[in-house]
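User: Show me an example of a complex going from sequences to structure tokens.

Assistant: Sure. Here are the input components:
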Amino acid sequence: MELLDRYLIAVGQNLPKPQRDDIVRELSENIRSQFEDKEAELGRPLSEAEQDAILKQVGNPLLVAGRYREDDRSLTLGRRIIGPALFPFYAKVLWLNLGVTTLITALIVLALFEAGARVTLGGTASSLFWTLAAEFIIVTLIFSGVERHVSKFPDRWDLCKPRDSGLSGLLERAEPDGTPRVPRFQSLARFVAGAVFLAWLRVITHSPIWMFGAAVGAFRVEPIWHRVYVPFVLVVFAGMIQSAINFIRPDWVRFEAVVRGTLILAGLGILTLVVTAGPLLTVRNATATPAQLHVVHTVNFWFLLYFSMLAIAVVCVAVFSFVPGLRRAPRVASENGRKRNFI
Amino acid sequence: MPVDDTQFENLRLELRRGCLVLAVLAKLRSEYHGYALGKALSESGLQIEENTLYPLLRRLESQKLLISQWRMEDKRNKRFYRLSEEGQMVLKRLVEEWRGINGAIETLLGARVAPGRKSA
């Protein structure tokens, strides 16, 4: 495949779908005209290095695509923290993290409320606010680091080395020759999600009042939680290490599959232990009132329901991830289809 | 890059941004495709990067100041841009504005330079 085609694929992957083909077609014509001009000037076809120099002049594919998007949103706190090129990715990761946290908190509050526990709006809002603020800071810090790197080294991308197309290759799911690769964006998102989750877990473990509010005084957690805590943290941490490695080596697809497969099995094992352990919470004192017993009973029921659903979700994700016909093939086919459209 | 250079670069980009729109609109009174327009502007002494020019053309078209058409040239299909009727009216008003600003700035710069010359 020609260098120009690789460049156009890299730009196209970061463009909004409705205008993608049109923009890529026009960009392709403009760059080809530039190539022809240079060839006429030199009186010979351009070498790959000369083509690369012209493409460098046109710009980093990620930034070029960013300029075509009419979405000029950026994050500015005194100075620009995250520019328009990275902002859509940042927004996706941030909303995913904040959305999942809000959903989990809402489900727990709902369960406590239904059980008749004392749940105050102020307490819930305050704990949710601080959790979301911590997630916002962590995700923003990571993306501002990426933004600084892109701004400082705008030329640090190289299409001559397909495995290392730099930050422009953040979303690439396949090498130009169709070989699958783990998208860097996916690795980055998983790493950030893992870090945020561990930070959240640490806070909740030390101050459960942030999650359960005033109702925390009535509960005592069963020993199963202490038994699964360390293995669970290790599974999340191992997932973060795998993501970091795949960010550096997106071509290690088999490594990703083996590690994630192992981690999914380990996660399922932990979930099975939790679900089959019996009640997950008990009342703190032996002379509990029927109302307190009702709260604990309802919360246990909801927890069991969540974890069973989580186990089913994990199995579904595993099936989807490890049946190649379901995941890889359509992607490679769509890459090839897009490639044909570009030329 | 030292802080002063960064500051200058930001101010220079800010100054150029509006001028580039005016230059592109002025040049597109005749029809050009993206690459040829970039070359023509460069020959007129106004360098503009490809990654600025091509998205700018699409933005001006979406604002209905330009119209475009795919057409064959040198056995290749290219997208040609030219000023729309609305674009012509906007250009006319922008040129008036430009001349006003330019005159004022020249006067201001002349007023500042003159005493310096005298003292030198």
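The lines above are the inputs; the final block is the predicted structure for all two components together. The interface with chain A takes residues 33-36, 39, 49-52, 54-55, 58-59, 62, 76-79 of chain B (CB under 8 Å).
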